[in-house]
TrEMBL record:
GO terms for molecular function: auxin binding; dioxygenase activity. It comes from Chryseobacterium shigense. Keywords: Auxin signaling pathway, Dioxygenase, Oxidoreductase, Receptor. It is found in: Endoplasmic reticulum lumen. GO terms for biological process: auxin-activated signaling pathway. This is Quercetin dioxygenase-like cupin family protein. It comes from the Bacteria.
């Protein structure tokens, strides 16, 4: 099995905004492009702003195929190594918001 180098902190294309509470990233992927393998140090959410067929690939081999439409919002937990792959023939874009506080399961 190949060794996968998981980075911490290289989440999106660029940081748009940051305070002591949140860090907001732009994530833009060209057709066929993938993010680097990474994991978030903070719980996060994303909002799809340019739709596309993408796949979240997890380090354990699991693949989550998604047909993301503009306006979809999802919440994810930190510390799960993954990468996002744009499987569409058009640019894909979302906005990622990392929360610098941890939320309870309540």
């Amino acid at each position: 099995m190949e060794q996968i180098d998981v980075k911490i902190g290289e989440i999106g294309t660029k940081v748009l905004f940051e305070t002591e509470h949140v860090k907001v990233w732009d994530l833009t992927l060209a057709p066929g492009e993938a993010t680097k393998w990474h994991k978030h140090q903070m719980d996060y959410m994303f909002v799809v702003v340019k739709n596309g067929k993408v796949a979240t690939e997890y380090i354990n081999g699991e693949i989550e195929n998604q047909d993301d439409e503009i306006g979809i919002v999802d919440f994810r937990k930190k510390d799960i190594p993954h990468r996002l792959v744009n499987n569409d023939n058009q640019e894909y874009k979302n906005i990622v918001v990392e929360f610098k506080a941890t939320f309870s399961e309540d």
